[in-house]
Amino acid sequence: MTPQLPELPFELTEFGPSGDWTYENGTLTGRAGPRQDRFVPPGGESLDSTSDAPRLLGPVPGGDFQLLARVKAGFAAAFDAGVLYLHVGEREWAKICLELSPDRPTVCTVVTRGHSDDVNSFVVDGDSCWLRLSRTGNAFAFHASADGEKWTFVRVFALGTPDRAAEASAGFLVQSPTGEGCEVSFDRIAFRATGVGDLRDGS
């Protein structure tokens, strides 16, 4: 049965391979299988060759919002990651990851418009970090935090048409592109029906 989170004002649906998703005592746990990832290489020729990874997503209510969680990953191989995921269309999606990239925990982001880009932002101490995905108007933003209080700006971007951006889905993804699998937990999950006032002031 697909877990439903009381912290979220929308229902979640599983996409991609099974993630063995569970929810207990405020913690969502998922597991990626061997060589599971969602990424379209920027140098690739085919837009239909997208690999896939376990995703748990739901339609976000209209208007500005923030989705945040503390992410802890059982890193075992390069690029294992726990992810907050944004979906606008089959070829338009984005993710902010706590990823072993390739041998140190790192905050990374990917924005896919047909093909994916790939950006490493900064190294993280330990195996956990807070991640945040937000929408303000027609723009989306990614932030990360060591404590869930002071947020570091990572990226702001547009994705899809304004109409499609207004109907985005968001949620969680787990990946293990090169390894035999990765278990990830998400706790301190919260949804706020407001955008981020100032992307760069730490709030």
Automatic annotation (TrEMBL):
Protein name: DUF1349 domain-containing protein
Residue segments, region Disordered: 16-54
Any single Pfam family the record assigns to this protein: DUF1349
PANTHER family in the record: REGULATION OF ENOLASE PROTEIN 1
Source lineage: Bacteria, Bacillati, Actinomycetota, Actinomycetes, Kitasatosporales
UniProt cross-references to InterPro entries, sorted A to Z: ConA-like_dom_sf, DUF1349
